[in-house]
Protein: Cytochrome P450
Organism: Tulasnella calospora MUT 4182
Amino acid sequence: MQAGGHWLWGHEYEAWSTTDGEFYINNVNELGQAFAMKGGLFLAVTDPAAISHIYSKHPYEYLKSQIIRPLIDRLIGKSLVWAEGDQHKRQRQMLAPVFTNENVKNMDEEVHNAADKLVDVLREHIHTERVTEKDGSVSVNILEWSCRATLDIIGNVGFGYDFQCGRSEEAKAIQQSWRELVLMGMGFMGFAAPLVVRAFPFITDLPVRAIQNQGEIKTIIKKLAMQLIEQRRAMQSDEGMKNGKDLMSTLLKLNEKAEGADLDQLLDHICTFVMVGHETTSAAINFSLLELARHPEMQEKLRKEVTEFVGSGPGGEPTYEEYQKELPYLDAVCKEGLRMYPPASHAERIAMIDDVLPLRFPITTASGEQVHSIRVTKGQHINIPTIAINRNTTVWGPDAEVFRPERWLEHGGVPAASSLTQGWSGIFTFIEGPRICIGYRLALFEYKVIMSALLKNFEFKDTGAKLATQFSSTLQPFVEGQKHDGVQIPLFVRDLHQ
Ligand code: HEM
């Protein structure tokens, strides 16, 4: 058991409020890869064998908590993120064909168009700003920009809707609502609410404005998707509508074959893709840009690679396959960014059975005994701090907390597979097992296309602002001492072609 902790909420406040998962990282380094926390009676686990046991071998015996599921439903509906057990298996089987390599490859045009539009609107913004640095760069909160492209992509590939690079009323409403939710989660209420809901679960149904507002984004997206379905029905036959290229058309086709699936659930799927797909991907891009701004030599190296490479796609752009195989430094920056800053930086599961968690790295108990497994009882809350898994010094070495893309290119730079979790590239950012992020191929493709477009056109420089992060739905950055100003990553941005 970790020592100390508040008399009422144990270690939970410390864990919730420290930056970059520091609480977990420090404890893992000191106590080992599994330790008990006072408070909500959590067991924190980062050990790869225990993680694999929970996520890959027994995913339906370790479930999301009853606190989180009503919130997920309210925010994005009863789709994959919400479903458990057989319901999840059925939904996953139905949705898996949507995000295959082949399908993501076919999203190429939408992804490139969105990246190009982002470059245009960012350029326009820079040139209309009056306050510039000596070199002509402008201070920009990059958070407000990259999400425009990722929302555009998922709008287009999801249901053929154009969010106009953040300019449509719906895009503005979604962003506004999301920011409010995130800010609420970062205030004291964000910490206290889960504790209260744990004690009084019915509270999630109370007609309290802050709670009911969580449904706003779902309402906007479902309304838009329904309007589009009706428009298409009015314009063409049902057959024509199902032959569209977007995910909604694919789902309409699959929907017919799937037993028990209905239109409302289809809209929940669309809503889920839009929300979990766009914020996470833009967060990944933002944190990488921050690190590249802090390391100009890495930024220049990456710019050189993406500028000099002549691909076999239209206009010399790399093709989907070339983005995967022919741009090694871009790949390394992408992996390192996702390792250091997993957007979904924390997760929680509840044991549904009495069980034993195996440990790859034995731990020493307070009495000095070395143990190779931990007994858990039904109802045990388990905290899985992804950020601490990805930055674990025992596994990644003393520079685990340093952004160093080169490690992915060096012989022996990446730890042996047996010390790592089994997700994509041995990091836990997309988790592992049957619930691994269904959209990860699309996310990686978007990341690479958007990052290349931005670096070819702009230079990013550190403003010197001291940043901290906190988990609120996803990993949120803010300027230290200025949390009330909202989430931000301020960067100086200069147009390279002016
Ligand atoms: C860098 C970007 C992304 C990251 C870091 C990310 C991360 C994750 C993580 C950690 C989970 C597992 C959550 C859990 O069970 O605890 C997840 C699940 C999911 N993600 Fe992503 N995601 C990203 C992009 C996307 C995109 C682009 C889409 C779709 C358009 C998407 C759709 C989903 C869905 C539907 C699930 C639920 C899967 C299931 O439970 O079977 N994600 N994602």
Observations:
- The radius of gyration is 23 Å.
